Amino acid sequence: MGNISGVIPFWKQRGETSFDCVKQIRERYGTKKVGHTGTLDPEVDGVLPICLGTATKLVEYLTEYHKTYEGEVTIGRSTTTEDATGEVVAEKRIEASISEAEIEKACEPLRGRIKQIPPYYSAVKVKGKRLYEYAREGIEVERPEREVTIYSLTLTGSPDFDEERSEIRVPFRVTCSKGTYVRTLAVAIGEALGYPAHMSQLTRTSAGPFTSSDCWTIEQIDELVKNNQQFKAMDPIEKAMHEWPSYTIDEKTEASVRNGAVLPMLKNVDEQQFALYNQQGSILAIYQQHPNKRGFMKPEKMLLGS
User: Fold this and answer.
1) Residue in 169, 137, 140, 141 with CA at minimum distance from that of residue 155
2) Which residues form the tRNA pseudouridylate synthase B C-terminal domain (predicted)?
3) Torsion angle of alpha carbons 235, 17, 15, 155, nearest 10°?
């Protein structure tokens, strides 16, 4: 299919792994250079931007983008996996409904910069082994604490009290930084209220500049492939890097950038890393302030060669 380069805002369905999605795209587009920009657990659906060709060079940057999720926390029951797929480990009957105001108060300290301990059933590595491997073997290890940022956490509906099961389901929306475990956040909401809890449902509605309304399902892509229109699903690299600091350079500087040259720093640039564009609006490279030569910049990632 020639030189493929771009990003597909893909809609991952429940029951699939993120790697399953990458495999599907590889097959449809006939290229090995494919990578996703942030793993989604099998039971979570939603926005999964997938990079093809030259765009795979940007995966490490795109995974840094803020992500937004809509989900549901069930208060009254906790599980081994902190979501609905695990075995129940603790239950506490809720005799009367908890008010929205009480839940809102429980969410207050969970906004901003917070510390999380990754769940046992996660892909975080400890001593060269993933936590879920230890969990399956029944081995307890010390899990590394990490700092994440919760940019917003809001309730999207009233608490739903299930008298029969003596539990409450609460719908919420969260925008957070890379590395946030929304499952662990759901558990923390329950703990703040004095109850065991787990995340009972989750959908990623946006990842950086891509939202659910931008996404293509595998069925839609198959239809495009059938009509030889598969490139319709691909967005240019420039859209993927839309939120990055960027600077447009003149033609003379462009020639040097295409050769990967170390150059004098552009005026009025404060950022450590930034994208350089040519006069036609095409992204050329990611440059950074030179670590050893003050007043100079050097290429970090070349995107368009000479």
Assistant:
1) 169
2) 183-240
3) -70
With tokens 């983008």, the residue in question is: 65
> Is 0.85 surpassed by the pTM of this model?
yes
For residue range 197-244, list pLDDT tens digits in order. Answer: 999 999 999 999 999 999 999 999 999 999 999 999 999 999 999 889
Strands 273-277, 246-248: pairing is: parallel
Do 246-302 and 67-207 fall under one CATH topology? no
246-302: CATH superfamily:
PUA domain (2.30.130.10)
| First-residue to last-residue Cα distance in the chain | 22
Q: What is the b/e burial string over 193-209, where b = at least 16 CB atoms within 10 angstroms of the residue's CB?
A: bebbbbbbbbbbbbbbb
Nearest-angstrom CA–CA distance, 20 and 261: 39
pLDDT at 132: 72
Reduce the DSSP state of residue 202 to 3 states and report it.
Answer: strand
The 3 state secondary structure assigned to 275-298 is EEECCCCCEEEEEEECCCCCCEEE
DSSP characters over 10-22: EEEPTT--HHHHH
**Third-level CATH fold of 5-64+209-240:** Pseudouridine synthase (3.30.2350)
What is the three-class DSSP state of 256? helix
Residues marked active site are found at 41
Tell me which residue of 114, 136, 135, 130 sits closest to 181, measured CA to CA. 114
Closest C-alpha to 34, from 44, 45, 20, 46: 20
Instruction: Indicate the fold that domain 67-207 takes in CATH.
Output: Pseudouridine synthase (3.30.2350)
Task: Break the chain into its structural domains and give their ranges.
Answer: 5-64+209-240, 67-207, 246-302
Please report where in the chains the tokens 């946030």 appear, as a residue: 180
